[in-house]
Amino acid sequence: MEKIFNLSTDKHSDMIDITPTIEQWIRDNNIKDGIGVVSSLHTTAGITVNENADVDVKTDMLMRLDEAYPWEHPRDRHGEGNTAAHLKTSTIGHAQTLIISDGELVLGTWQGVYFCEFDGPRASRKYIVKVIEG
């Protein structure tokens, strides 16, 4: 079972908590047990699992990624000018594998699933969730 989800972003860089959306889809489809893969369908946006209790974690992560990969670098050659976004996506990763047990995502107390925008704002972004039940 799979679904492509759409979202829009309103910041240049952001981490959007998609956990509730995925959890609702799991409930709506009565998925009890399995492995789920969440994947960004973009080369400048990733998926990660991280703390969702303290907003400063998102702020710090985005700040440190900006420090590691500044938006303008004199040696960047990519014609679109968004090399930093590609580097950030490769560092974070485009996908995460999640466990579903008893109809719930298996996440730690403070964990959430995030869509990471690195080249926004964008009116249309997509990610896919595919679940293999069993």
From TrEMBL:
Belongs to the UPF0047 family. The lineage of its organism: Bacteria, Bacillati, Bacillota, Bacilli, Bacillales. Signal peptide: none annotated. It comes from the Bacteria. Gene3D superfamilies: YjbQ-like. PANTHER family: UNCHARACTERIZED PROTEIN YJBQ-RELATED, UPF0047 PROTEIN C4A8.02C. It holds the Pfam family YjbQ. SUPFAM superfamilies: YjbQ-like. This is Secondary thiamine-phosphate synthase enzyme YjbQ.
